[in-house]
Design a protein that fits this description.
heterotrimer; A alpha/beta (371); B alpha+beta (84); C alpha/beta (283); A: 371 residues; Rossmann fold; 13 helices; globular; C: 283 residues; alpha/beta; eight-stranded mixed sheet; 13% strand
Chain lengths: 371, 84, 283
């Protein structure tokens, strides 16, 4: 059913459709409307779930961890400073191999205080064992949340959906909200590697010796690698049921492109329009959108070995390169432009200018796009 | 997925080995003086005192020799003796 | 009528000789099928090393500041979820503890208080006793101590109590009572630590009893009405208490305190008694 929803409200709809049982979140701009909408839905009985009013983000993820351990499908959402406040719990949840879904409305980190988008916050989860996905628009935010429950429950790793602050979270778009029965037929009953229950006297997380603990991490790494296949399979299943295609990446005119731009997040929409402009002038350029940042789509990127590649980053690893530039640079030679940090708006004209310079070979190894 | 097992532990005695080896003093039970109050059973930190009818038994495999049983006994029925 | 106290902690575990947590944990045997949430602290170690657990019920290890919140999550599926944490967890996780009480989460929180961050090697905490020596207060703690149980009482939750490992029957009764109430329940358990407070391992129960008999630790409960319990009842009468100096001088952590220090502590203890007595009359 097509309707008008902001990215945040689309996520709330997805949580409802996924039959989540426990929701705990602490408000932080620009995630707040997800929390408010879910609280409303629980209060009115629209969702059969418990909404827990926590006093901090650290506790939000802790509550959701507890309910997930007990076998209840659970959800939380946060942003920027909130994510950093719950950072310790993020690592605990992934090391504990507990499936759950979190939405992060990507927002820059202060000081100075700034509520607008860049990807630095969600990328702090890069090494933690969370599966990281980025939504380009409200529809993707909804679809990735639903797929997130299925994927995380199959590989026993937690799943995060990133959506850009205000650009996706607060912008109303046309969204196709699937019917509950269709989602029910797509999402099975929750399963997980182990469950806590009163009649089973297991202890979870006792001190363990070094060698066996290292094997636990190795196993986690293998499962993260295996999740690539699961993501592709689930993406195919999703396409069959709901008609929208999902995979680790999205190709936009890359087949015959000599020049490829690699990006992630909401601004891919504007970048695609810029690609159209350049194409209309005969320039063979394409865009590879990374829907998933973890697991890292190494294979898809390796296919671009013989092209000229530009990575446009909405994040920067101080002391080195853009974070995406680092990741992609590990697989391919590429140029790296740092743009749109702290919410600086990047429109089609900016990308047209940038891609023209790229095609003319004028972009340095690492360049900051300051306005 | 096999190593997720490392996260799970099951209840078992001796999770720190045979802690009876920690002792320097051993509690010796004088059955004749015991008044069956069972305070020693309630207060033993190691749970190695068990009830046997109106008397008690001490599990020397795990008793750490802390001496709390002797300290709480109102009848001097437990004596701490130095182990050689 | 005495309650049956069982043995949920298995022998041969890593606790020190005379450990008060090991004594206190027995009280959980009066609850039906509890799930115990344990944040970082001594009990993390006492719970045993993989693949063995030393506890006969389900145990969930959690990050230091998160215990009451994880317990809240578990309580959405189960009753009888118990947080067993130390005074350290009540410092670093103070916001978590308070938030949980504000929500009236259906959990029991037991703070087994050994008056310092013992697991990391005896550092001073918010509840460390006046003038006590720890590694971060080597000449004796100069600050006040926070009365955790009274703070939780002011959250207006259905059950708050104090207890001592020296009076296990009183403690077990309180745990049983807490188990029969719904909502947020809190018990502050006094746990003298032989290596931390510097006394012989055989004297754990004796020192705990001296704390109560001298008035330094007060046994009370609130279940809608505030009342003193057990051996604290006769301590209303200062004449019936043992001298506080006896309690202090029995522990190495107070070695070298002056007579003036003792008088100061006595005055502080009297002030707490005044407060507790007015609570008895009007709360």
């Amino acid at each position: 059913m097509k309707t008008i929803l902001t990215g945040n409200y689309a996520v709330a709809e997805a949580v409802k459709l996924s039959r989540v049982k426990v929701i705990a979140a602490y408000p932080i701009t620009p995630q707040t409307t997800i929390v408010e909408r879910l609280a409303e839905m629980v209060e009115s009985g629209e969702i059969d779930a418990e909404f827990v009013r926590v006093e901090s983000e650290h506790s939000a993820l802790a509550v959701v961890y507890g309910s997930s351990l007990a076998g209840l499908r659970s959800f939380t959402a946060t942003s920027s400073h909130g994510l950093l406040y719950m950072y310790e719990m993020c690592w605990w949840v992934s090391n504990a191999r507990i499936p759950l879904v979190m939405a992060v409305v990507t927002r820059t980190i202060g000081p100075p205080w700034n509520i607008h988008t860049d990807h630095t916050d969600i990328l702090t989860l890069r090494d933690s064992g969370w599966i990281i996905s980025m939504a380009e628009n409200a529809q993707e935010a909804l679809d990735l949340t639903i797929q997130g429950f299925k994927i995380s429950e199959r590989v026993n790793l937690p799943f995060v959906v990133g959506l850009d602050a205000f650009v996706v979270s607060h912008t109303a778009e046309v969204v196709d909200v699937p019917e509950q029965d269709l989602v029910d037929s797509f999402l099975p009953e929750r399963k997980q590697a182990y469950v806590i229950s009163p009649d089973d006297p297991i202890a979870v997380g006792n001190i363990a010796q070094n060698d066996v603990t290292m094997r636990l991490r190795y196993d986690m790494a293998k499962d993260m690698e295996r999740s690539k296949e699961v993501i592709r399979e689930v993406g195919d299943e999703f396409e069959k049921k709901f008609g929208r295609k999902y995979g680790l990446v999205e190709h936009y005119m890359t087949e015959d492109a000599d020049y490829v731009v690699v990006m992630s997040g909401a601004w891919c929409g504007d970048a695609k329009e810029a690609v159209d402009v350049l194409r209309s002038r005969g320039i063979p350029i394409g865009l590879l959108k990374l829907t998933y940042l973890r697991p890292f789509p190494k294979e898809e990127l390796k296919e671009l070995e013989d092209r000229e590649v530009l990575v446009v980053d909405r994040s920067f690893s101080m002391g080195h390169r853009g974070i995406l530039g680092l990741e992609v640079g590990n697989v391919l030679d590429c140029k790296n432009v740092i743009a749109g940090l702290c919410g600086v708006d990047m429109g089609v004209e900016d990308f047209v200018e940038m891609f023209n310079r790229f095609v003319r070979g004028e972009i340095e190894d690492v360049e900051w796009w300051l306005k | 997925m096999e190593y997720i097992d490392v996260l799970i532990s099951k209840p078992s005695k001796g999770s720190s080995g045979k802690t009876g080896l920690w002792r320097t003093f051993k509690p010796v039970y004088h059955e004749d003086k015991c008044v069956s109050c069972f305070e020693c059973y309630v207060y033993c930190p190691e749970n190695c005192i068990s009830l046997n009818g109106l008397k008690i038994e001490i599990d020397y495999e795990y008793c750490k020799g802390c001496g709390v049983c002797c300290n709480v006994c109102p009848a001097n029925a437990i004596e701490m003796v130095k182990e050689v | 009528m005495r309650l049956e106290i069982g043995c949920p902690l298995l022998p041969g575990n890593p606790s020190c000789q005379g450990c008060p947590h090991s004594i206190g944990l027995k009280a959980l045997s009066v609850l039906e099928n509890p799930i115990v949430v344990v944040p970082a602290g001594c009990t993390t170690i006492i719970a045993g090393m993989h693949p063995k657990s030393s506890l006969k019920f389900p145990v969930v290890h959690v990050p230091f500041a998160s215990a009451p919140a994880v317990a809240c999550g578990l309580s959405k599926a189960y009753d009888n979820v118990v947080v067993w944490m130390g005074d350290g967890g009540a410092d670093i996780g103070f916001a978590t503890l308070s938030g949980s009480a504000v929500r009236n989460d259906n959990i029991i929180v037991i703070v087994s208080d050994n008056e310092a961050y013992m697991n990391t090697g005896i550092q001073a905490s918010g509840t460390t006793f006046w003038k006590a020596k720890t590694t971060t207060s080597p000449t004796g703690k100069r600050e006040e101590k926070k009365d955790l149980a009274l703070i939780m009482l002011m959250h207006r939750v259905p059950y708050v109590a104090t207890a001592s490992v020296g009076y296990m029957h009183d403690f077990a009764q309180k745990v049983k009572k807490a188990g029969e109430i719904r909502g947020f329940r809190f018990i502050h358990l006094h746990s003298p630590c032989p290596p931390g407070w510097r006394f012989d391992s055989s004297k754990t129960v004796e020192i705990a009893r001296m704390a109560v008999k001298s008035g330094a630790w007060i046994l009370w409960e609130y279940d809608g009405k505030f009342r003193l319990t057990g051996a604290s009842r006769k301590c209303r009468d200062k004449g019936k208490r043992i001298p506080i100096e006896e309690y202090l001088r029995a522990q190495g952590r107070f070695r070298g305190i002056s007579d003036d220090d003792v008088k100061e502590i006595e005055k502080k203890v009297d002030e707490v008694w005044n407060l507790v007595e007015s609570l008895e009359k009007m709360f």
